[in-house]
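Crash report, auto-generated. Payload:
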Amino acid sequence: MKFGLFYELSVPRPWTRESERTVYDNALEQVKLADELGFDQVWAVEHHFLEEYSHCPAPELFLTACAMLTKRIRVGFGIVVCVPEFNHPIKIAERTAVLDILSGGRVEVGTGRSATWTELAGFNASPDVTKKSWDEFVRCLPKMWTSEKFEFEGEFWSMPRRTILPKVYQRPHPPMWVAVTSPGTELDAADRGLGSLGLTFGQFAEQERRIAEYRRRIQLCEPVGEFVNDQVSTVNFLYCHEDDAVALTTGRQMANHFNYLAAQLMSVRETYPSKSYPSLGLLPQLRRQATGPDASEQAGEGLCLGGPERITRTLRRWEACGVDRVNFLINTAESIPQADVLASLRLFGREVMPAFAGEKS
Amino acid sequence: MPLFGELELATIAGGLPVMKDLDTDAWELPKAEILQLACEIADGSRVLLPRALHPAIPEYVTFVVTRYPESPVGPFSVAQLRLMARAGVHPRGYVLGVVASSAGAVAALRERWGYPATIGEIALRRYHDRVAATVRQDGRSILELALVDPEIVSGGDLQYIHGVTLARVDGAAQLVQVDPHYTVHQASRGRPAVSRFEAVAWNAGPVELTTPIAASVSTCDTDLPRIRFVMDPEMPVIRGTRKVR
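Recovered output after restart:
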């Protein structure tokens, strides 16, 4: 099992000139430490207009800084929003390639389509066709990275024959992933031979069922890229402390902060009836965890909050469910002081990671 | 923390509906027709939102025009303007203004569910290319809106967000949650169009419509339910919510 960090870069009010800079600086310091400790990846999302929840509209810039500060850790560019009003596919291919060169071939690419009215309407994009444009994008990207010349005529974008430069450093191209929140999206990933980048928290039984179906389905895939990425990644909260009680209290505070800010977002489905968004995705689960029966549990099922032994046990459960990678949110809205976040990472690196080192993932 | 509402309660406390108690019986309301239209609004509405609630990001309102062919007070129609918000982590529509088409409905909505209802004339009409609603009060039009070019969608694609309304209960101002059930039989969505909106008539002086979002129309069985939750309008709901039943 491999471990990574996952950044939304949330910035609490009141906003000052320095507050955003502090969040970015803290994140870079965390990534540098994570690299030294042997974490495998750092991911940064693309979000726009999501007040407090995520001030991360240009993940490739943040990840370039990460790459410059580190030696080994892989940089996960994503979720890149594959909607033409947000990103032209040529620009995605080019920016990915530049980041891959600068990082020495450490890029992973996560793809998605946005789930909020706040963002989609902000770019004047129709929610009805985001899945179709995402599909078109993910089929083009590998060819744009690997073909000497590329031309395309599609429903959402077209281009005449050109040489897209530079080419990615990795051969044949970086691993590709799909953001999975709504049930069923993992099957879209499987059908295209793409990794499942889960963005939901907890709940072993449900995840195990979905992972098993993904594994079955990807055997039959028609890969959009030159290789199949059949890995399953999930996201989790991490706060590791010698004292279970301290870790649970602090960690739950962080998780509640995250859930509370996420619940303020305006999902597409809240206001725009569309078969393109058949579920609320992440939000119902987060609301339930923040205020429902799950909230009264000592820690939400499957969350990595606690002492090293407790977290190791939890990760073993995830491993048994079929998860290959776990990406951690290690702070939200700066609710945990930076020194404590770094201490949590060090303890995790010292006491938990060795138990999973060298295992086949 | 997210932003909170900034309503000065004292400015509206005198005009709040007075509820007899919180022991309201439910009304079954079959075969209702609901036209809902959502629209983003300009900044400035937070002065209308109680301090217990967070504004939506971006700020928006919904108009809900409903025709109830059967009810304990006979057929009636209701039009609501709701400022959309969050009660903690839950989306809620804070009711700014309500017009009902019969005196019996106005009295019941005020006394039993705490709606700030006033009397008016409401028309909800279906045409081949649109579903249109108009609301008139004291001889003048205060709302004209339409769903244009309807296309059939699944009832499961519609979201009806629970409402909260500010009323006087046992002598104190309380936010009352009204959370109807819906069994949708037919649903369409379409392009939203608002051709007339008199904000002041809806207790919504600072509300300025900007970007239309979507419109939907449905035929459904619904209700006006028993009251389940009330909230202190001045306190974050995580501390100020009381379960009635």
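Post-recovery validation: Residues 36 and 272 of chain A are 46 Å apart (CA to CA).
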